[in-house]
Specification:
The protein is α+β, with helices and mostly antiparallel strands and 164 residues long. The chain has one domain: Muramoyl-pentapeptide Carboxypeptidase, domain 2. The protein is 54% helix and 15% strand. The protein contains five helices and four strands; from the N terminus they run αααββααββ. A four-stranded antiparallel sheet has the order 1-2-4-3, with helices on one face. A hairpin with a 2-residue loop joins β3 and β4. It is globular, with a radius of gyration of 16 Å.
């Protein structure tokens, strides 16, 4: 991927930064984190319905939904597919991104890992919202390994399991 950023990418990156600054300036840190994740959740639901049309009404396995997320959803949002998806086939999915586009755009602006981690809250919400559109609830966590690389863990309750 070229290191030159398009105008769209720069504007998208600045939008992320502005979202966080607006929320943090008006609320406590915990409230702003929740609002950022909720915003992502809402956008994730909307995008899921737009790209999947009739698929959300079908009963798909969690693996099939995760494949749609990693191909179609990621392509729509980040102009590329996921670098690597791994699963234990028991409801745990690990997404490895060596050049996560939002972090690629913003790690030059924010050297503070805490600020970059806050940006990932929006993406945690995006994934939860996408999965919710397919009637899947999940615990989603992110790990900032070496910006712009990150790992996203998605835990979907496995049939026969009661915990998320």
């Amino acid at each position: 991927m070229s290191t030159l950023k398009t105008e769209y990418e720069v504007l998208f990156g600045l939008l992320y930064a502005e979202i966080i600054q607006v929320f943090e300036s008006s609320n406590s840190k915990e409230q702003s984190k929740l609002k950022i994740e909720k915003l992502g959740f809402w956008v994730g639901c909307v995008v899921a319905h737009r790209i999947s049309k009739n698929l959300t009404s079908l009963k798909l396995s969690s693996l099939e939904v995760m494949k749609i997320l990693c191909k179609d959803f990621w392509l729509r949002l980040f102009n590329k597919q996921v670098d690597n998806l791994r699963t234990n086939h028991r409801g745990i999915f690990i997404i490895h991104e060596s050049q996560f586009r939002p972090l690629l755009l913003l790690h030059d602006f924010f050297k503070d890992p805490d600020r970059l981690t806050e940006l990932l809250l929006l993406h945690t919400g995006l994934i939860k919202g996408f999965l919710h559109a397919f009637n899947l609830e999940a615990a989603v966590s992110t790990e900032l390994t070496n910006a712009p690389a990150c790992i996203i863990q998605v835990k979907i309750p496995y049939e026969g399991s009661t915990s998320v």
